[in-house]
Amino acid sequence: MRLSVPPPGPQRESVVPMINVVFLLLVFFLISAQLTPPEPFDIAAPAAGSDRPAEGQDILYVGADGVLAYRQVRGDAALDLLAAEPREGGLLVRADKAAPGAEIARLVARLAAVGVAPVEIVATGR
């Protein structure tokens, strides 16, 4: 009785190199991604009709009660920090829709008085 030897099947290739490449890509994208810091407080932005995105990297937050926040600083110290920093480009102002319009107008005037310009107010799309 003669038993035949089955022909060799397809070679099994290791998936370890592919896992290594995927892991390295994951690490690369995590390191190179620009993550935005969390907002200092919840802001319900007003709606706007413009589809043009706001341009700028520095963001001044204005709460519903008029509290200012810039980076880790709150209150009038945020304006002092804004005035002391050199800046390329404009300043974005994210104000809550419940913040009084007169307060926002006074804030823009104060920013212009300390030399912070241009200022863009950020709103959400419709």
TrEMBL record:
Q: Give the record's keywords alphabetically.
A: Cell membrane, Membrane, Protein transport, Transmembrane, Transmembrane helix, Transport
- Chain segments annotated as transmembrane: 15-33
Q: Where does it live in the cell?
A: Cell membrane
In its UniProt record, which GO terms are filed under biological process?
protein transport
Q: What is its main location?
A: membrane
Q: What is this protein called?
A: Outer membrane transport energization protein ExbD
Q: What is one term from the GO cellular component aspect held by the record?
A: plasma membrane
Bilayer topology: Single-pass membrane protein; Single-pass type II membrane protein
Q: What is the native source organism of this protein?
A: Rhodovulum marinum
Q: Note the InterPro entries from the entry.
A: ExbD
Example GO molecular function term? transmembrane transporter activity
Q: Would you identify the family this protein belongs to, as annotated?
A: Belongs to the ExbD/TolR family.
